[in-house]
Design goal:
Blueprint (H helix, E strand, L loop, with lengths): L7 E6 L3 H16 L3 E2 L8 E6 L4 H20 L4 E6 L5 H10 L5 E3 L7 H19 L32 E3 L20 E5 L1 E2 L10 H5 L3 E2 L2 H13 L4 E5 L7 E2 L2 E2 H9 L6 E5 L8 H9 L6 E3 L7 H6 L6 H14 L4 E8 L6 H14 L3 E6 L17 H24 L5 E9 L6 E6 L4 E5 L8 E9 L4 E5 L2
Parallel strand pairs: 1-2, 1-3, 3-4, 4-5, 5-6, 7-10, 10-13, 14-15, 15-16, 19-21
Antiparallel strand pairs: 8-9, 11-12, 17-18, 17-20, 18-19, 20-21
Bound molecules: S-adenosyl-L-homocysteine, iron/sulfur cluster and FE3-S4 cluster (F3S).
Iron/sulfur cluster binds next to α5.
Length: 478
């Protein structure tokens, strides 16, 4: 029995699916140690904040949450506060937490997740030693650094005082990520599967290559084994995760090879992937949509901007024309494919004409849905130093115009679904009405329809009755 047995935990997750999946892994690791989820965050023995640093508002929300945690720490003796995730891969953030929030017990980065139980045990040992020292039971004056000696804490962040029980574990990068970690999944019937970690693209606005390190692909056999295990445990849909799945290289396998092999797994009904970089979306992958029965007809293809001039300064390595050509080729090969995107407005130097090109591209592609972001300056990225930063007022004005345009397109596209029958994988019961279920179509559209919770995890035919901006409504087909 470990010193962690019986402790309750709560994990607060910011950011993308990578972080969501990391949180599932941390929950799996804690459960393996005999911990269980707290009914209420305020009652938890261990709280972990898994941070994101992709935009500035993520920073603000993090510091707000830390403030709440401080109160909890003051009220509950023995409480353990942990902070991890992408923000902790940034030097100045670790320094800020260490100095301004010294009551945070454990700080670790995106490459140290597997060591969570080890860090918690170490903290408990440190606390016991500290209590012993304070009561005069020996150990006082001990000067050994309170590190496990695994050699992957960045030297500048080592905690060297025996009076300080904090544990800090950070690595700049990790060439090979650990395999075989448990995960406590949010859903029984669908799962995230990492196929690669890190990013080599260095888009000029983006912090991710600095927080997740260089690109590394998992071995195909490890991925296939994981997916077979998942399907044996009732999973019907997997979402393959990577910052740019198109550059997957597992030995001599590319991403399309992996999809074809996964498509052979019995019981796996749906394969999705996130995210695809337009610069290297291959013809073979486009062909796979028609060839692989379980590959969903949906692609998230972030364009970021509609003007080739802006794209070049973003270091995206494709032009407006190349992107539009890709969309045409996708639609020629897979006429019913749904397409979503990410767009940044107010990138440094973006002129009104550049912005108009983003609007016209959106009109031309007619996306099913889009995530639109205000450009956010990220310390350490090239674009943060670019001249001609756009004023907040201009950014917001452009943002509002783009959102209105995108929403109108989504609404029109969704309205056209009325009368169609869609296969829906049922995810759960609506939060607003317990008689209503929700799920996703093959094309990733959210559908609400009245039904019995016994259908959760099943794929059922639903006749769409109404299309709204962000979802569809329907009724079960007999
Ligand atoms: N690897 C993925 C995206 C990861 S970040 C890809 O390349 O598509 C998710 C989205 O956040 C990006 O697509 C981009 O639109 C947005 N984003 C990243 N950095 C940003 C910044 N500094 N300001 C505003 N939005 C940003
Ligand atoms: Fe960021 Fe670009 Fe890498 Fe995506 S591809 S994570 S936007 S650097
Ligand atoms: Fe945020 Fe890290 Fe994802 S910065 S968007 S959580 S990879």
């Amino acid at each position: 029995m470990s010193g962690l047995t019986g402790k309750t935990y709560n994990i607060i997750t910011f950011g993308c699916q990578m972080n969501e999946h990391d949180s599932e892994t941390m929950a799996g690791l804690l459960q393996r140690e005999g911990c269980f989820p707290a009914a209420d965050r305020a009652e938890a023995d261990i709280v972990i904040i898994n941070t994101c640093s992709v935009r500035e508002n993520a920073d603000k929300r993090f510091f707000g949450t830390l403030g709440q945690l401080k109160k909890q720490k003051a009220l509950r003796p023995g409480f353990i506060a942990c902070v991890c995730g992408c923000m902790m891969q940034q030097e100045h953030m670790v320094t800020a937490v260490k100095q301004q929030y010294p009551w945070v017990d454990i700080v670790f980065g995106t490459h140290n997740i597997d060591d969570l139980p080890g860090m918690l045990e170490e903290l408990l040992v440190n606390r016991r030693k500290q209590a012993g020292a304070e009561s005069g039971a020996g150990l006082s004056g001990e000067t050994t650094p309170l590190l496990s000696g695994r050699g992957y804490t960045l030297a500048k962040h080592e905690i060297r005082s025996a009076k300080d029980s904090r544990v800090i574990r950070l690595m700049d990068d990790r060439p090979v990520m650990p395999e075989g970690l448990p995960a406590k999944r949010l859903f029984r019937h669908k799962a995230f599967v990492n196929i690669m970690y890190g990013c080599n693209n260095f888009c000029s606005y983006c912090i991710v290559p600095y927080t997740r390190g260089r690109e590394k692909s998992r071995r195909p056999e490890d991925i296939l084994r994981e997916v077979r295990n998942l399907t044996a445990n009732g999973v019907r849909e997997v979402t393959l995760l990577g910052q740019n799945v198109n550059s997957y290289r597992g030995g001599d396998w590319n991403f399309a090879d992996l999809i074809h092999a996964l498509d052979e797994i019995p019981g796996l009904d749906r394969i999705r992937f996130m995210t695809s970089h337009p610069k290297d979306l291959s013809d073979r992958l486009i062909a796979s949509f028609a060839q692989c029965a379980s590959l969903c007809h949906y692609i998230h293809l972030p364009v970021q901007a509609g003007s080739s001039r802006t794209l070049e300064r973003m270091n995206r390595r494709y032009t407006r024309e190349k992107y539009l050509d890709l969309v045409h080729r996708l639609r020629d090969a897979v006429p019913d494919i749904t397409i979503s995107t990410d767009i940044i407005v107010g990138f440094p130097g973006e002129t009104e004409e550049d912005f108009e090109e983003t609007l016209s591209l959106a009109e031309e592609v007619r996306y099913d849905s889009a995530f639109t972001f205000l450009y956010s300056k990220r310390k350490g990225t090239p674009a943060a130093e670019f001249p001609d930063q756009i004023s907040e007022e201009d950014k917001h004005r452009r943002f509002d115009r783009l959102v209105a345009c995108m929403n109108a397109i989504s609404e029109e596209k969704n309205a056209a679904y009325a009368g169609r029958v869609e296969q829906v994988l049922v995810d759960g019961v609506s939060k607003k009405d317990s008689r209503v279920l929700n799920g996703r179509t093959d094309g990733f559209k959210l559908v609400d329809f009245p039904g019995d919770p016994s259908l959760i995890g099943k794929i059922v035919p639903v006749r769409i009755t109404e299309g709204k901006t962000f979802s569809l409504r329907g009724a079960l087909e007999p």
